[in-house]
Specification:
Layout: E1 7-11, H1 16-27, E2 31-36, H2 39-51, E3 56-60, H3 66-80, E4 85-88, H4 103-131, E5 134-139, H5 143-146, H6 152-172, E6 177-182, H7 190-194, H8 199-202, H9 214-225
Parallel strand pairs: 1-2, 1-4, 2-3, 4-5, 5-6
């Protein structure tokens, strides 16, 4: 499994899942364009990849804004070439009681979690169509599969990502482009630690009785990005330690 000669974009690459995914794709030989609104964090990710001998650029941008995405694509073209792999990972994941969700909060989540992947896909698919080879992996969430109390807005956006993935996969299946989604569940990231989830209390109630590692998600993404997965599209590859069985 190798991605040598391919350029990969990873959004939300400043920490957590995004950083792990960027590091893994670089390890598989991809040149990585790491995107994030957090400039310091994404530069740290790039430094880790460069220190390991990988080819990388860090791009500070808002991946839910069309003009910033266009700039990020142009920087990626200039620094690394045409884009072959896109991982839509950037997301907001707040916990909030349903009746406390404001219209602005709802709109913000829709913009980052759902409109962002739509805009990023529109921006990079021309490269993939030209090459007749492309891999799009959208990070969704097990909350879209099971529901999640106090995350109605978040689960709704991630359910949208799953539907978006399936439909896009069907449209481009004969163009050499695969589109799949990975819904993580209960993974030990900074975001989980910062959330109100009682990690120690919840872990024993899961089948594996422990949280996953960001590297588990990264491994699934690397597989779906590879030629080994060239006959898999529209698939939801759950990585959740048995929390949701599909």
């Amino acid at each position: 499994m190798t991605l040598a000669g391919k350029t990969a974009v990873v959004t939300g690459a400043a920490r957590g899942l995004g950083r792990a995914i960027a590091l893994r794709l670089a390890r598989e030989g991809a040149a990585v364009s790491a995107w994030d609104l957090n400039g310091e964090g994404v530069r740290e990710t790039a430094a880790l990849i460069a220190a390991a001998g990988g080819q990388v650029i860090a791009v500070q941008c808002n991946s839910a804004k069309a003009d910033e995405i266009a700039r990020a694509v142009a920087e990626t073209h200039a620094g690394l070439g045409k884009i072959a792999v896109l991982v839509n990972n950037a997301a907001l994941s707040p916990f909030m009681k349903f009746q406390d969700i404001t219209e602005q909060v709802w709109d913000d989540l829709m913009a980052v979690n759902l409109k962002g992947p739509f805009l990023c896909c529109q921006a990079v698919i021309p490269d993939m169509l030209e090459a007749r080879w492309g891999r799009i992996i959208n990070i969704s969430s097990s909350s879209a599969q099971t529901g999640s109390a106090h995350q109605t807005h978040y689960a709704a956006t991630k359910a949208g990502v799953i539907g978006f993935t399936k439909s896009l996969a069907m449209e481009f299946a004969d163009a050499g482009i695969t589109v799949n989604t990975v819904p993580p569940g209960f993974v030990a990231t900074e975001g989980l630690q910062e959330s109100p989830v009682d990690v120690a209390g919840f872990a024993p109630r899961t089948p594996m009785k422990r949280p996953g590692r960001p590297e588990n998600i990264a491994a699934a993404v690397a597989f779906l990005a590879s030629d080994d997965a060239d006959y898999i599209t529209g698939h939801t590859l759950s990585v959740n330690g048995g929390r949701y069985l599909n």
